[in-house]
Amino acid sequence: MKRIAVYCGSNPGIRPAYVAAAEELGALLAREKIELVYGGGCVGLMGVVADAALKHGGHVIGVIPKKLVIKEVVHEKLPDLRIVEDMHERKALMAELSDGFIALPGGYGTYEEFFEILAWSQLGWHQKPFALYNVDGFYHRLLQFLDHVATEGFIRPKHRDLVLVGATAETVLAQMRQFNPPVEVKWVK
Questions:
Q1: Of 11, 82, 157, 170, which residue is the least packed, with the fewest Cβ within 10 Å?
Q2: pLDDT tens per residue across span 19-74
Q3: CATH code, 165
Q4: CA 14/CA 131 separation, integer angstroms
Q5: Is residue 29 part of a domain?
Q6: Cα–Cα distance between 2 and 10 in angstroms, integer?
Q7: How far is residue 13's CA from residue 18's CA, in Å, rounded to a whole number?
Q8: 121 within 8 A of 162, measured Cβ to Cβ
Q9: What number of other Cβ atoms are within 10 A of residue 71's Cβ?
Q10: Is residue 120 situated within a structural domain?
Q11: What total number of domains does the chain contain?
């Protein structure tokens, strides 16, 4: 894997563990020579993961819509900042640039990105690994919900298995490297 997209909160959350996990992930990606692709912001966990990757010598690609640049949430110290028209273009470019995806804790935007990239995988539009970085059990309830949805027949077991989960950055990355997609690619978006 050359590049990994990280989805995460534009807020830091209330637990120090969230910030520590973002720092750990950014540092690990830099050490492993994996480029970070993320939303281009300087705030919340987004800023933390980018700063950690940069601090440890990593390459960071930020992808941000024009409207967020105007709101002054853009990270101004990025070596590679790509300004796009809107959120749709942002998500498409992040997906195109990345070989895999990790979701740290976050809010609506993180979940929206998570489910979209997961749906694309289910449809066979890509075979890239996706993992939830389950910091302090943050994603336990979401995982229970996904199990419920599968039990109720709305997600096939092979599609439920697309979601990798790890409690440390190292575990998440190791699972992504071993990922064997259960879905064959039918279309290329």
A1: 157
A2: 999 999 999 999 999 999 999 999 999 999 999 999 999 999 999 999 988 776 89
A3: 3.40.50.450
A4: 22
A5: yes
A6: 25
A7: 7
A8: yes
A9: 12
A10: yes
A11: 1
